[in-house]
């Protein structure tokens, strides 16, 4: 008998969350929800509108009048910000460098978590982020916490950037990843943290398929 469950995947930057989440979702015919994309979309709009990123109430007001849609399509997930496709724009270095300052505000998190819970209310969902197992879906049947060394994570982003045709500096990437992990782990509300009942997988020396297989094994114990 098949059962539709919720799978929460958390972990630091570039641990491989979205890559394996998409594979797991496809294998199970579940929907995939990239919560980081939602924080990134708001960050893009805030910087485009010159909203001060320290100004929590202005950001919260901006979010209230902002529509963020995650659309499943054949070439992966598209992100629509007020109806406009911003799938590529939200991966810019500028958004990456600023997103953690937006995501640390309690009022922003409260609204984002409510939206994410509503997106996941119909089960059969794989959701990735930083606080999915701890706050967004505390009753998820499978919780995974992915980690990898910062050297390996920077190397993965570096190779990804070469493939995209935008070579970057490995040391810069390492610094940016460390900085973002630090802000995400140290914030007061819902910091990056392994849920007590999450299974930790160190992916430093694992392939994408090996990680996906480990998660699918955990899933098969539950469905
Ligand atoms: O894919 P990558 O690791 O670069 O980051 P992401 O998943 O797109 O998330 C971008 C940022 O959004 C994170 O660094 C966090 O600051 C924030 N975020 C969060 O606070 N909570 C989530 N559930 C997801 C993302
Ligand atoms: O979502 P998150 O920021 O955690 O990571 P990602 O965007 O999925 O990026 C991880 C990068 O590392 C991708 O380029 C993957 O191809 C690569 N990778 C991986 O995800 N898992 C491995 N075990 C090995 C490599």
UniProtKB/TrEMBL annotation:
**Could you name the domain of life of the organism this protein comes from?**
Bacteria
Return the GO cellular component terms, semicolon-separated: cytosol
Pfam families, alphabetically? Cytidylate_kin
Gene3D superfamilies, alphabetized: P-loop containing nucleotide triphosphate hydrolases (3.40.50.300)
InterPro entries attached to this UniProt entry: Cytidylate_kin, Cytidylate_kinase_dom, P-loop_NTPase
Q: Which reaction does it catalyse?
A: CMP + ATP = CDP + ADP; dCMP + ATP = dCDP + ADP
Sites where the protein binds ATP:
11-19
GO MF terms, alphabetically ordered: ATP binding; dCMP kinase activity
For this UniProt record, give its keywords in alphabetical order, as a comma-separated list.
ATP-binding, Cytoplasm, Kinase, Nucleotide-binding, Transferase
Going by the record, the broad EC class of this enzyme is transferase
List each copy of the Cytidylate kinase domain by range: 7-220
What compartments host this protein?
Answer: Cytoplasm
An example of a Gene Ontology BP annotation on this entry? Answer: pyrimidine nucleotide metabolic process
E.C. number(s) listed in UniProt: 2.7.4.25
Indicate the transmembrane segments per the record: none
Matching NCBIfam families, A to Z? cmk (TIGR00017)
Query: Which family does the UniProt entry place this protein in?
Result: Belongs to the cytidylate kinase family. Type 1 subfamily.
Protein name, per record: Cytidylate kinase
Q: What organism does this protein naturally occur in?
A: Ornithinibacillus caprae
Q: Which gene encodes it?
A: cmk
